[in-house]
Amino acid sequence: MSSSERMTNAQLLQQVALLRWLSSQSDEDRGLLTALTGIQVGKELFNRITGQDKVDAFKRECILGISEFVRQNKRATKAEINAEVEKRVLIFAAQVKALEETPLF
Predict the structure, then answer these.
(1) Average pLDDT over residues 89-105
(2) pLDDT higher for 5 or 57?
(3) Buried b (16+ CB within 10 A) or exposed e, 74-84
(4) CA distances from 55 to 47, 62, 74, 85, 93 (A)
(5) Of 4, 45, 54, 86, which sees the most CB atoms within 10 A?
(6) In contact, 66 and 85? CB cutoff 8 Å
């Protein structure tokens, strides 16, 4: 199973709460399920409104790109590494700026 197919911790907790409620039908378990679902919905809304999940993905991409450059260019000079870092950071900044200018819906 790839990491993209795995449930997040929040999804797993929600499924556990759902399973508990389905087996017990108790008000306590329904309240737990409602709270966990509300938290997950709130987090998703926050990410969609702010684009934070995309910013985090761009940041990972930037860092991985820099590390890949260093790995493939073991004899690169400090100036070459600095130039690559600057290039990658400028790309990251442009991606974030483009997100800010994109309509929410």
Answers:
(1) 86
(2) 57
(3) eeeeeeeeeeb
(4) 10, 10, 29, 17, 10
(5) 54
(6) yes
